[in-house]
User: Which sequence fits this backbone?
């Protein structure tokens, strides 16, 4: 606004000055090389203005001619870039659609048009992965690491390829290099899983703390991971350093209330040291939050010195804390069966077998045991066994198509931390072996790969 005002004032003064100059009497005489020129003041001013305009026009044409080749090249480059970006877009769509031929063709053309574009390198890597050219993908990712803009992405791609070929050391190297550049979540998680896979739980704990400080993970994730690592440490130390194991298990329970694996470790440590009463109270304090089958089995086992009627009375006290939980009813039915109180055993299972309910295999097998104990082997027993063979499986520890007989801190399939969930397996799983003592890593007899309809557990 101020500039416009100044310009208007300047224009007014210039106009006034020209008008004053034109109105002045007189003429301008020029003698040069024997020539004599004379003109009035208005003519001289008009000629001067025309000369200035002509000079400006000539200068503009000269500059335009000088810049013309550059503009022609720049326009060609711009058109080339636009075409390259269009090819990149088509290539990325082809990758997303799984069209290998189009993706590879687009990657080749994009490399010709935009060889230094980061997206071109990404498309090359993804097209190579899609076509199964793992060596080509690795080369593309390595090239990305040479560019600061794409180095983290290249390291992640190399990390994924190393894990795919099961090269743990290379995967760890790439994750560590990326984590040193920036605390990205995938690298921090990979370092935690590497230490966990090596059984170095203390380093895993330190890495979790560093990830939290760098805000690579949130507080809830950190608490879950801490609980898993502390439970794994407790499992490792429960026989050699029981006091430390008990402390770690209790710490894990504070971080993750109701976490059954931590409670199981604490329970076993207390029972081994003769504090059965405290062990029972521990499970009772958790039962309303998590009526878990493993905790129920431990509770029942700890009452083995009691009479059948005394055990039944204690179980009845426990299930009042979660009367509607399926595990409470299974536990009561089992205790009542041991006490030969068949009516109470049936009553315990009645809600799980009622019309409209879908009983699980365990409910059916318990009913078969009740019928056999009361009436001997007969048609009812065979009927319940047949129902049990077709019934949905009861929950087990399962992670990434692997079923474990007990909880494990990492997945045997991928090494992922906190991968196991307590849930019902696919119907293809038909039977499981007897529970084993907990270990930190899974042995072949402790896990089951879900490979198809004929998959079954090792026995």
Assistant:
């Amino acid at each position: 606004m101020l500039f416009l005002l100044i310009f208007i004032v300047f224009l007014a003064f210039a106009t006034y000055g020209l008008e004053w100059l034109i109105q002045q009497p007189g003429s301008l005489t020029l003698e040069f090389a024997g020539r004599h020129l004379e003109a009035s003041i208005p003519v001289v001013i008009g000629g001067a203005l025309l000369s200035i305009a002509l000079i400006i026009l000539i200068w503009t044409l000269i500059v335009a001619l000088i810049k013309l080749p550059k503009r022609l090249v720049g326009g060609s480059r711009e058109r080339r870039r636009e075409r390259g970006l269009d090819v990149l877009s088509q290539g990325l769509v082809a990758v997303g659609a799984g069209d290998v031929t189009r993706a590879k063709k687009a990657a080749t053309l994009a490399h010709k048009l935009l060889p230094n574009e980061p997206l071109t390198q990404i498309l090359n890597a993804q097209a190579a992965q899609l076509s199964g050219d793992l060596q080509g993908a690795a080369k593309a990712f390595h090239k990305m690491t040479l560019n600061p803009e794409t180095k983290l992405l290249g390291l992640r791609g190399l990390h994924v390829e190393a894990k795919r070929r099961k090269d743990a050391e290379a995967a760890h190297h790439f994750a560590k290099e990326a984590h040193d550049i920036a605390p990205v979540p995938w690298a921090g998680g990979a370092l935690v899983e590497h230490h966990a896979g090596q059984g170095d739980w203390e380093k895993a704990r330190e890495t979790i703390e560093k990830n939290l400080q760098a805000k690579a993970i949130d507080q809830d994730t950190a608490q879950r991971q801490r609980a898993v690592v502390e439970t794994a440490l407790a499992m490792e130390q429960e026989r050699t350093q029981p006091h430390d194991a008990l402390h770690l298990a209790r710490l894990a329970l504070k971080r993750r209330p109701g976490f059954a694996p931590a409670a199981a470790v604490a329970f076993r440590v207390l029972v081994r040291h003769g504090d059965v009463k405290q062990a029972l109270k521990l499970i009772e304090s958790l039962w309303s939050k998590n009526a878990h089958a493993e905790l129920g089995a431990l509770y029942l086992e700890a009452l083995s010195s009691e009479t059948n009627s005394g055990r039944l009375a204690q179980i009845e006290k426990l299930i009042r804390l979660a009367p509607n939980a399926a595990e409470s009813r299974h536990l009561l039915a089992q205790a009542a069966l041991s006490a030969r109180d068949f009516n109470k055993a049936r009553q315990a299972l009645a809600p799980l077998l009622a019309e409209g309910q879908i009983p699980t295999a365990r409910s059916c097998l318990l009913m078969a045991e009740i019928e056999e104990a009361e009436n001997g082997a007969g048609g009812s027993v065979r009927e319940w066994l047949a129902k049990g063979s077709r019934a949905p499986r009861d929950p087990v520890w399962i992670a990434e198509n692997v079923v474990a007989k007990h909880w494990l801190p990492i997945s045997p399939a991928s090494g992922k931390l906190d991968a196991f969930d307590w849930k019902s397996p696919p119907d293809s799983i038909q039977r499981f072996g007897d529970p084993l003592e907990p270990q930190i890593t899974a042995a072949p007899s402790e896990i089951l790969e879900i490979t198809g309809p004929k998959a079954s557990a090792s026995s």
Observations:
- Confidence is low (pLDDT under 50) at residues 428-459.
